[in-house]
Amino acid sequence: MDKSSENPDKEDGVSLKSNGGTKEKGMLQSFRRSIRRAAEKSPLSSGGKWAKVTTGNESGSQPPPSPSLSAGSPVTSPLKNIGGLFYKKEEDDSDGAAQKGKGLTHSKTDPNMAGFGDSLMKKGASFRKSLKFKKSSRPEAAVLVSEGSLEERKEEQEEEEVLEELEELYTLPEIPHTPLSVMQINKLIETEVLEEAHLNLLAMRQEFQQEREQCGEDSPLELAKKEKDLNLLYGNLRSKINNIVRDSNSLPSRNKELLVPVARIIQEEDRRAAEPGGLQGGWLEAWREAVGEGVQLKVQGVHLEPREQDASWLAVHLARLGKSIVEDLEKVKRELRWSYPPSFQVFSTYVRSYHRVVGQHLKKLEPQVTELKDLYALLDWIINSYKSERIMGSPSLQPDMKDESTDLQLQDGLLKQLKDKYCCKVKEDMKSSLDRVIELENEDFWRDRRSPKKDEDFLNSPFHMDIWTNVEGNAKNSRRIDAQLKQEVISSCLQVLKEFPKRLEAEFSRHCSALRPQPLWTKYHITYINSFSALQQHMDGYQDICPREVEGFRKEAKWLIIRLMQVLEDQYKEDVKPYLRRMMTRKWLTDDEDFKQLYRRTELLSEHCALMRPPHVQELASRLHYHVAREYVGQLMKNNYSCKNRKHEKAASKIRVQWGRLRNLFEDMRLSEKLSTVEEKQSLPTSRKHLVAVLYFRGLLRGREHQLILQRLTELKNKLGSVGVDKNRVLFGDMQVTVNTDCFSNLPFSCLNFLRPDN
C-alpha cells in the first residue's frame, strides 16, 4: 500500500481476511482525510499568488503589502476575494473543520501542479485496488458505498449553498522586484496567464515611476521607450480582458476561471488610475463595454430567415431572440455572477446591455418590416412580450429582476414611427379590402345578373360583415398593443371607409344602369339599402372612440341610402303615373284595367318592400302611400268628369273599394298605423275651392244643399280658429284645383266618406 494511505492512528487500521471476513469501518473516511492532509500540506493551499483576506483569529503570516502603500499596511481595496487567484474564505481555522475544495485555479507557470495532481490520483487508484473486497462482504461494502455516496452528495449540496459573489476586499500578491521582459509579459498575456502578467506590469510600472521621479522634468529616451512599452502591454492586456469578458457567456467552461483574475485586475487598475504609467479611461467602464459587445454578438447570432423563404420570418426570429435572452441571463445568474464582486453589478449590467442592444437590433430590422402582420408582431413583442414572463419577467430570472427595469431602450421616435407605419399599413390594407369587396360584388352578382341572397327574409350582401370583421379585427389587435393605437387604427379605418359608399355607388351604376327598371335592378337597390344600414349600425359602435370619424361615415352612408330610396320612389311614381291620371274619368267608371295596372305595380312594390329592413321600409312606404293618396284623390280636382243621373253613388262605391284595396297593400308594407291615421285625419278638405271641386264631381253646383255644405265648412274653420296645421302633411294642400265652380251637379257628399278615419 502507498505511503500516502498509511496512518499511525489506531482508528485507521484495516484488517482484511482471505475469507472475506470483517473490515473495520472508516477505511474510506481515512483515505479522504489522508488526501485532505496532503492538500493542506501542499504549498498550493496558501492560495497561489493571490491570497485571501485573513482575520485576526487565523494563524500564519500576513500577506505581503501592496507596494503602493506604506510598509506594513495591508492592501484593502473595496473589493472581494474567491478561488482561482483569489480564494474564497470558507471557514475559520479556529473551527477545526477541513477546507472544502472549490477547485483551485493554478497559474500556468507552476510546473509542479499537474504532476502533484496526477500523483495524488494514482495513489488513490492503487489504494482502491489494494482493498480487494470479496463477494461475502457485499452487505458491509454496500454500507460503505452508501455512506460514501451520502457524504459526497452532502458535500456537493454544501458547495452549491455557499455560492456567493466575490468579496470586495482582496490582498494583492507580492509584486516581483524585477519584471519580466516586454516579450515575456506579452507572451503571458497571449497565453492568458493574466495574474502573472499583471504583477509584472505593476513591477514595470513601479520602475517607470521611480525612474521618472529621479529624472524629473528631463525625461531620457529610455524612459519614453519604457512608457511606450507600458502603454502597449496595457493595451494588449485590456484587449485580452475585453475578449475574455465578451466571450465569457458564450464559452463559460473556458473563460469562467479567468474571470476572477480579470475582476481583480480591473479593481486594482481602477484603484491606481491616478498613478502614471497606466491607460486612460476606466477599466470598469471598458468591462461594461465588453459585456455589451458580448450581448451584441449573442443577439446577432440569433438566426433570421429571409422574408422570401418564410412568411413568419419576423415572428419566428423574435421568439428565438426572446429565448436566447432568457437563456443568456439565466447563465449570468447561475454562473458568471459568482466570479465578480458585488460592485460590478453583473446581472444588472447584462440586463441593461440587452435593453440597449436589442433596441438597436430592432432599429435595424425596422426597414425590413413592411407587412401589417410583421408590424403587429414587432409592436406586440416590444410592448407586451419583452416585459412578460416569456422574457424579462421570466420566473427563472427572479428575484434578481425584481428591482430591474423591463423596458427596452429604444431609439428616440422608433416606437412612434412603428405605430404610424402600422396605421398607414392599416389604411392601405383597408383600401385594398374595399376594392376587393367591389370586385366580388361584380363577380358574384352584377356581371352574371344574379339575384341577391336573403338573410332572415331580407335581401342582403355579406360585405357589411366582411368590412366590420376587418375593422374589428384591427381594433382588437391594436388594443392588445396600446389603447391609443387602437383609437388611431379605428380612425384610419373609418377615414378610408368614408369614401366607400360613393365608390360602390359609382361602380354599381356603371355595371347595372342598363337593368332599370327591371325587378332585379330594384332588388339590388334594396340589397344595398339593407347592407349599408347594417354597416352603419356596426360603425356606430365606435362612436365613443372616434365620434368625428363615425359621424363622417354616417353622413356618407345615410346620403347613399337616401339616394337609393329616392331612385326606388321615383321609379314607382313613374310606373303608376299613367294609370293614376286616368282615375275619376268616364272610362274609369266603366273599366277597371287602369286600376288593375296600378294595383299590380303597387303589389310588386309591396313584395319588394317586404325584402327591405326597417326603418327604411316604413319611410319608403309612407312617402309612396301619401303620393298615391294625393294623386288618386287629386283626380277629383281636375274637372275630368262630373257624375250625372245618380252615377255618383256608383262612383262613391268604386272609390271605397279601390282605395280599400290600395290601403291594405300599404299596410302590408309595414306602414305605421299612427302615421296612416294622422294622414287621413289631416287629409280632409280645408279650403273652399277643394270642397267646391268635390261638389262639382258630385254634380252639386248650386241650391240649398250646396250652400249648407259651404256654410258648415265656414263654421268648422271658425271653430278651429288659429290652430295651425303642418302644411307638408295636409293632403289637399298639395292638390291643384282646375274645376269650374260655376257648374253644379247632384253628386252626394257621401262619396268622400272613404277619407274618414273610421272607413
Proportion in β-strands = under 5%
- Unreliably modeled segments: 1-149, 156-161, 673-684, 741-759
Q: Quote the average pLDDT.
A: 75
Please report the distance between the alpha carbons of the first and last residues: 133 Å
Shape: rod-shaped
CATH topology of the largest domain: Tetracycline Repressor, domain 2
CATH class of the largest domain: Mainly Alpha
- Which secondary-structure class do the elements indicate? mainly alpha
GO molecular function, one term: SNARE binding
Protein name: Exocyst complex component Sec6
Pfam family, one: Sec6
InterPro entries: EXOC3/Sec6
Question: How would you characterize the overall build of this protein?
Answer:
The chain has 759 residues and is mainly alpha-helical. The protein has 5 domains: 3-63 and 84-161, no CATH class; 182-299; 301-411, no CATH class; 415-564, Tetracycline Repressor, domain 2 (Orthogonal Bundle), CATH 1.10.357.50; 582-755, Tetracycline Repressor, domain 2 (Orthogonal Bundle), CATH 1.10.357. The chain has helices spanning 27-41, 112-131, 138-161, 182-190, 194-215, 221-247, 252-271, 283-300, 313-334, 346-365, 372-385, 414-446, 463-481, 483-497, 500-512, 519-540, 547-581, 586-590, 593-609, 616-634, 647-668, 673-682, 688-698, 704-720; strands spanning 453-455, 458-460. It has a two-stranded antiparallel sheet with strand order 1-2. β1 and β2 form a beta hairpin. α6 (221-247) packs across α8 (283-300). The model is unreliable at 1-149, 156-161, 673-684 and 741-759 (pLDDT under 50).
